[in-house]
């Protein structure tokens, strides 16, 4: 199939601001951005499962059928939500390491604000303006690292995996205002697991490391630094000075 035979989805045309051919029926009274904001409000408050065409239509003050004038499927609705909820990327400073740090911190902040984004099925590389701008910003940060296109692509993948994994892990842990998750776990292991069977686990517990939960930002920064240290070794192999 040639590129010319692949039809661009209507939702992408709308998100890129290209005019749509005139259609029969009532004149549009909404924009995809308004629809996205209504759906995001639901997802932020109640989670992605709360988002349905019916509830979004109600929030927008239109019928469910009217919503289909803008988004053909629920997958299209998710596309709109991601684009509207993402917004522009952070400013990228000079130097590959500082640039990637800024990008990763910005991406983490975005996912912490909208954790439902981690539940939206991935369908491929970004195709909408702001999502593509984030990709552009990450590639700008990596410019001058001396990497091959394949290595650049792999670094981009790994920083994505790290940020998404960190937010997903911390977001899945329960919160207890009376006690730390780690502290409760340590007490149960002391009670149930024999030191003879799990000597290294018990030795780590005995250090007091698990008495309190670690700060998630400190955890993120530690992992980010170690990941960039590893990437820096590859950059050094290419003869590029450390950033």
What does this structure look like?
The structure is a single chain. This protein has helices spanning 10-15, 32-46, 53-60, 64-67, 74-86, 96-113, 129-142, 149-172, 181-192, 199-206, 216-237. It is mainly alpha-helical and 243 residues long. The protein folds into two domains: 3-85, Orthogonal Bundle (Arc Repressor Mutant, subunit A); 87-172 and 213-237, Orthogonal Bundle (Tetracycline Repressor, domain 2). The longest helix is centred in the middle third of the chain and has 24 residues, at 149-172.
Beta-strand segment tally: 0
Distance between the termini: 44 Å
Q: What would CATH call the homologous superfamily of the largest domain?
A: Tetracycline Repressor, domain 2
Which class of secondary structure composition applies to the elements?
mainly alpha
The CATH architecture assignment of the largest domain turns out to be Orthogonal Bundle
What's the SSE pattern? HHHHHHHHHHH
Radius of gyration equals 23 Å
The CATH class of the largest domain turns out to be Mainly Alpha
Residue share in helix: 55-70%
Q: Mean pLDDT, rounded to whole units? A: 89
Low-confidence sequence ranges: none
Biggest sheet details? none
Under CATH, the topology of the largest domain is which? Answer: Tetracycline Repressor, domain 2
| Bulk shape | flat
Number of distinct helices: 11
